[in-house]
Specification:
Layout: E1 7-9, H1 16-24, H2 40-43, H3 46-49, H4 59-66, E2 69-73, H5 77-88, E3 93-97, H6 122-133, E4 138-142, H7 151-154, E5 160-163, H8 171-183, E6 187-193, E7 196-202, H9 209-213, H10 220-231, H11 258-277, E8 287-292, E9 297-302, H12 310-321
Parallel strand pairs: 2-3, 2-5, 3-4, 5-6
Antiparallel strand pairs: 1-4, 6-7, 7-8, 8-9
Helix pairs in contact: 5-6, 5-11, 10-12
Length: about 325
């Protein structure tokens, strides 16, 4: 039986949970835009829906994706785009979480943020989007967020974790990445940085999130600076900021673009496919990838020792002064 913090949706729009989500957003089984067993659900065919993936992946690999379960915490700018991309790749199951609602300030970068969804729970809106793509998708929803009390349930039966948490959310991020390291679950974080993205992958047996960022015992503001420095060791995104006053770590605010969010999803979802299909090399921490679409620059950076690396220490020192 699911806990009170977890809502299970599986197999089709006929489930009570799916009906509840539809009702919440002013739609119901039988509406023209909602699949159901007498109409769209009968028309849906997994093989046909994702047949255009074949050629870039094999039919056998498509079935591997269909049998895979990915966890995503945070369904805003990058998290919603992650789920959208992976749903259309045919991933068959997800554990997703976000305790927040959509607001008008989210409009510039978040897929689920529209006038019709203002005030609606992000987890419900994004779940409905996934079900609209694949009525057979298996969704476990965690609408109250993730913490020590439910992280094990959140990661149950998961093949891979994809970080979609807001940049400034550190406690939940540390909790999930630590649990992934303990359970041997590959974990990725891709950050939208201006007109680009930065990606770090953590794999079982490799450098962990804590090994790389070394956040234990640090105050919150220091953790934020370490997270930014670790994601972007070169800081190449900073040359594009036209109003530096809009970036303020102590006040937990910063500018964003939809380009950064969508690029983050593109880069992260590609790495997810490589890991799930065990195809192609995946460079893991202490390596990080930074791609800047504005200049067309792409750079892999290795920082052995993570925050202990001399260049990382220098970057942190500069950030503290700023």
């Amino acid at each position: 039986m699911q806990s009170e913090s977890n809502l299970l949706i599986s197999n089709s729009y006929n489930s009570c949970a799916a009906r509840a989500i539809c009702a919440k957003h002013g739609s119901k089984i039988g509406d023209p835009d909602v699949p159901n067993d007498s109409k769209d659900a009968e028309k849906f065919d997994y093989g046909t829906a994702f047949s255009r993936n074949i050629g870039w992946i094999t039919e056998t690999e498509q079935q591997v994706l269909r049998q895979s379960r990915v966890a995503i915490a945070g369904l805003g700018g990058v998290g919603g785009a992650h789920l959208a991309g992976l749903s259309r790749l045919g991933i068959g199951a997800f554990n997703i979480s976000d305790p927040d609602i959509f607001e008008i300030v989210n409009f510039n970068r978040q897929l689920g943020a529209t006038m019709s969804q203002i005030g609606q729970p992000k987890v419900d809106v994004i779940a409905k989007m996934a079900l609209d793509v694949n009525p057979e998708v298996d969704l476990n929803l965690f609408p109250k967020g993730i913490g020590e009390h439910n992280v094990n349930e959140f990661l149950r039966d998961v093949d891979l974790y994809l970080d979609g948490l807001d940049f400034f959310v550190m406690n939940a991020r540390e909790t999930v990445f630590a649990a992934c390291a303990e359970k041997g679950i590959p974990a990725l974080t891709a950050a939208p940085l201006g007109w680009g993205t930065a990606l770090i992958v953590f794999v079982p047996g490799g450098m962990s999130f804590e090994d790389y960022f070394q956040m234990a015992g640090q105050p919150h503001e220091e953790k934020l600076m370490r997270f930014l420095a670790g994601l972007s060791p070169t800081g190449m995104e900073l040359e594009h900021i036209v109003d530096p006053t809009r970036l303020n770590i102590p006040e937990e605010r910063g500018p964003s673009t939809p380009i950064g969010a969508f690029l983050s999803a593109a880069v992260a979802c590609t790495s997810v496919v490589k890991l799930l299909l065990r195809r192609g090399e995946v460079l893991a921490a202490p390596w990080s990838l930074h791609f800047d679409a504005f200049t067309g620059r792409s750079e892999w950076v290795e920082r052995p020792g993570g925050m202990g690396h001399l260049e990382m220490q220098a970057r942190l020192a500069a950030m503290r002064k700023a």
